[in-house]
Design brief:
693 residues, 14 helices, 31% strand, binds alpha-D-galactopyranose
Amino acid sequence: MQTWRLDDARQTLVLCAQGGLPQVTYWGAALPQGEDLSVLHAANARDLSGGMLDVVPPLSLCPETTQSFPGQPGLRGCCADGTPLRPQFKLREVVQDGQELRVACTDEARGLTYTATLALDTQTHVLRLQARLDSAAPIQLDWFAAPVLPAPDHAAEMIDVSGRWCGEFQLNDLPWTPGSHLRESLVGRSDHAHFPGLILPCTGTSNTQGAAYALHYGWAGGHRMVAEELPDGRRQVQFGHASGSYAAPATQFETAPLYATFSDIGINGCATAFQRHLRDRIVTTPTPRPVHYNCWEAVYFNHDLPRLKDIATRAAELGAERFVLDDGWFGLRDDDTTSLGDWQVDSRKYPQGLGPLIDHVAGLGMSFGLWLEPEMINRDSALFRAHPDWVLGEADQATGRGQLVLDMARGDVQSYLYDSIAALLRAHPITYIKWDHNRVLPVADVAQTHGLYALLDRLRADFPQVEIESCASGGGRADWGMLERTGRIWLSDSNDALERLAIQHNAALFLPACVTGSHVGPRLCHTSGRMLDIGFRAWVAAQRHMGFEMDPRELTAHEAQVLRDVTTWWKANRDWMMMADILRLDSSDAAVIAEQQIAQDGSRFVVFAGRAATSAQIAPRPLRLTGLDPAARYTVTLRAPDSPQAQSRGQIALKTGPVTLSGAALMGQGITLPCSDPGTMAVLEAVRREEAP
Ligand code: GLA
């Protein structure tokens, strides 16, 4: 028995091998250095009973049917002649380099080499796992899992993620039951419906306490996830590309990185590990993040230069620092039926090109961003008339939003898109692209995703000053595969602050504030028909990377003033807030969605407690905080609402002035917020007191 271990301050992962593919036999709370890993392995082995094989087949990094593994194998495919591929790997070597393990196994008879990397980032607590398969002869793969991890025995539930347009990041608490739970995005993008993430809380775990595991598959092209309980009770989790993604026989296959983390401080420990890892290791966007203005919900396709200039002037006056010109500026794009692919400025709307608008925006001190949807094409476009064969999939396939997808694996498509976008970037001081993707693909296809990655990589290399935002009808491509190449997610097309409050609360399990776009929408929300108060809309946007998207001409003087005030507050706090940990609070009131953003050094925090509905009880329950030093004292000030609330008649402490309490009191008993109406936000600002012990 050979053993290896990866350690950081909070977790240990143990890998064991007996001649074949290694298996993770322990992953959880940090073990003492002297632990005998062979004994650990033996102590956790399953017993044998009647009806079982005479051995327990290993739950290896890539479980093999040739070992009689009783669940989903880690690899499925066939040889060129159609013979099923049933490898039997022998361990060649495991090389340990600090907290990184490189595993190499071979099946000489079948000409196969399996390699895997398991690397633990000891600062962020995130494991990065990736597998690769090389074959001497071309093979057809249907399924290839990233290194497979065991799931905890001591858990009754898992939490997976689903969603829809304007309703991203919905969490589903599902029971562990015998057999497999499958989630698969077959639509060629990570998609609203299938964000590739999984949380595995152990029994009794909440946001703020207990043990939990979290996994995320960093791939934009659609994933497959199997969480399976085997007949012997063991559990495994497999993540890989969606079935059928490998369209053609090949000799090399590589999974995307699987990110995983363990926390013994509640689900928040997983969330903050992911937030930090994404922010500090993957995304390279410079700080400070500018306040956005995006014109989509103000003008849609009606681009009129004087009007846009007026809007830009007003947006700058409200505090915007970047102006993003959305859909409608190119081709003959007067509605969403036409012109995708024709990335030339519409001379009817912009007779002198984009220059006059960009100059105006620059004169206001704002940078300029442009909307593009490069992977798409309308049948009604010059591009389609010239190149109908550039479309991915069947000629008579159903359209989505009236559009089709370009075949990104083609060199000519790549060149056309690169040249079109590069021409725009060379001609104008454009420092931002909102990169949209508004329909699903006809198939999941690895070549399509690699084509997209290659185009993004080339543009980023040649135009390093240009930041890119990933949008797909809102948050349809919010995965870390995209975020390796972009710096912001347009989290949802819902600018309804009530919906957004919940969406961004859940997205914080995987995304830090600095990559999560959040805009103040119109008073009458276009996607829900709700009317929400400006204070609530502004504070919800101020929880993440703030922006505006309404027509500023609709604002009353009072609304404009509130928006200016909250924006000024956001700018004053963004330096630490964009680097803060977002801790989801365990609210004892289902009507209150609350989070605490705490500075990395613990010196200050802000609490956002959004009231999403009326409560069952008549007066608010205390809200318990988290992540504080129990012995330290914190001075907490009610920042919002900053005017008397009609429903609040009492003299609770927070209403009368700052409150200073210990971390122990704030975390144990909590603090009472004033009565408030649904659709309002309480904002608490707090500083840790510097006191002699
Ligand atoms: C998608 C995006 C929106 C907007 C429109 C433009 O729906 O999510 O934000 O850019 O496209 O057509």
